[in-house]
Every structure is written in structure tokens, then in C-alpha cells.
Design brief:
7 helices; mainly alpha
Length: 212
């Protein structure tokens, strides 16, 4: 499991974190999450430097520290680039793919809360229920069960985050409460099993955990 400490203000960063989760594989996802941190560091530093610039020559250079700083800056900008690539794919359609998986996760979690522990792939399982909702609401791309299964498989370890944000928005919760809810959903998904089975919905190894 990969753990991310969220950077404030959440009003600025929360959608960046969700977008980073839309990357289609774990390695790219982690790079994009690091990119959010790097992006915010650059953003915050630009304001700090503008207001607290020191006259040239007031500090003697430390070569080793300078080299270390250069290496860090190179890595940080690489992380920002990774994030930018993921954001481009997010805008091109990965946002919607992730949203499908989030809706399926929400179906599962609500069934856990109700003590039903829906199956995922059965005829009356979470994916079929989510698909029925998509059809009723006229959501494009929500009819094909095979495609929905593919989205769920790709994002099941991270979809709890956006599912919590959606539920919190519907219920009027603030963002800090939403983040705490996301971890409750994450925990349930990795510790609860579909009815009549003994395998959790999601392995903890696949999950990303967010903490404040």
C-alpha cells in the first residue's frame, strides 16, 4: 500500500490528487502523486521567493548543498512533468473511466454498510447495479459490462478516494471529513468480502491511502 500525506489547502490540491489517481498503472500513478507534491512546492516557493528575495552576494555558496539542490530540482521538475502527462490523459477521458470505477466502489461500500456485501461481477452485483444507474441517467459508456469490469479492475485500488468525495459532496460534508471517509471506504474494501466468499474486494497491496 502506498501512503500519501495530503498537502493543504485541500480546496486547491484535492482534485489534483484525484486526477493523479486516474493514471492507468501503479508506477505512473505514484509518479503523478509525487508530482502533486512537487507542483505545490513550486507554487508555494514562487510566492515565498517573490516576497523574501535576498540581495546577491549576501550568502557564501556551499557547493555540495548547491549540487544537492540542483539534483532535487531536476527530480522535482520530472515529477511535475509526470503529473502534467497524467492530467492531459485525465482531460482526454481517463476522468470518466475513473468515475465509472468510483461509482462501482460506492455501490459496494453502501452494500457493505447495509450488511449485504454485494458481489462484483454477478448478474445482480455492483457492476450490474452501477450500469443500470448509468443507463437510467443516460450516461454514455455505462452500458457495456465488459468495459465497466475493465475500469473497475484498473482503478479498484484507488477508486475509494473519488467515491468518498462524491458521497461527501452529496451529503454536504467538508473536505477533511471526506478524506477520513475515503479511508473508511478503503479499509472496508480491503477487509470485507463479497457474500459467500473469503477474498476481500481489493488487496491492500493495490491501494493508495490518504492521510491528513
Amino acid at each position: 500500500m502506498y501512503t500519501v500525506t495530503l498537502i493543504e489547502p485541500l480546496e486547491v490540491t484535492i482534485e489534483l490528487y484525484r486526477a493523479a489517481l486516474s493514471a492507468r498503472d501503479t508506477e505512473t500513478r505514484i509518479k503523478a502523486l509525487r508530482g502533486v507534491k512537487a507542483h505545490m512546492e513550486v507554487w508555494q516557493m514562487s510566492g515565498f521567493q517573490a516576497s523574501d528575495a535576498k540581495p546577491a552576494g549576501t550568502v557564501q555558496p556551499n557547493i555540495e548543498m548547491f549540487q544537492s539542490r540542483v539534483e532535487y530540482e531536476v527530480e522535482r521538475m520530472a515529477n511535475v512533468t509526470d503529473l502534467q502527462l497524467v492530467l492531459a490523459a485525465y482531460d482526454a477521458g481517463d476522468n470518466k473511466r475513473l468515475a465509472f470505477a468510483e461509482a462501482i466502489t460506492l455501490e459496494i461500500w453502501l452494500s457493505i454498510v447495509a450488511g449485504q456485501n454485494l458481489g462484483v461481477h454477478s448478474d445482480k452485483g455492483a457492476i450490474a447495479r452501477a450500469s443500470a444507474t448509468f443507463r437510467a441517467e443516460g450516461v454514455r459508456g455505462g452500458r457495456d459490462l465488459k468495459t465497466l469490469r475493465s475500469h473497475w479492475k484498473k482503478y479498484k485500488g484507488v477508486a475509494h478516494f473519488g467515491a468518498a468525495l462524491k458521497f461527501a459532496d452529496l451529503e454536504g460534508y467538508d473536505l477533511h471529513t471526506a478524506v477520513k471517509l475515503a479511508d473508511k471506504i478503503r479499509f472496508a474494501m480491503s477487509h470485507e468480502c463479497p457474500k459467500s466468499t473469503n477474498k476481500p474486494y481489493v488487496s491492500e497491496d493495490e491501494q493508495v491511502k490518504f492521510v491528513l
